[in-house]
Amino acid sequence: MRSVCDVPHSNHTVCVLDDEPSVLRALGRLLMSDGFRVLKFCEPQVLLDHARNQLVEFAVIDIRMPGMSGLEVLAELQTVSPDARVIVITGESDPSHKAAALAGGACAFFLKPFDDELFLQAVRKAISA
């Protein structure tokens, strides 16, 4: 069994924003299995409040959120935490979402369900950039 000190990404925290508890659990488990620390948020404003008080190094943001879209969260996060790297995820296959996310500063975009290893590769690449 590995200890936290043996896990390669244990000094990096990923904030995950999704209003679906099952997605939060699954992404949390996936990221933790690769050695990341994970903070889970189910409300956009709570993530943004956190970002105003704590450094956000990396975030995974779902597009469909109540009250505020993930693209709006991305724009606000870029204002309060300009160095944060962001991956945007969605269950809707609308090509304009990908274009808007990437134009808004996201480093990657994934359509749910996505390949876990490709997702982790994108996270690792963004963290090491």
From TrEMBL:
Residues 13-127 form the Response regulatory domain. SMART domains: REC (SM00448). Pfam families: Response_reg. The keyword Magnesium does not apply. The lineage of its organism: Bacteria, Pseudomonadati, Verrucomicrobiota, Verrucomicrobiia, Verrucomicrobiales. The modification 4-aspartylphosphate is found at D62. Keywords: Phosphoprotein. This is Response regulator. GO terms for biological process: phosphorelay signal transduction system. It comes from Phragmitibacter flavus.
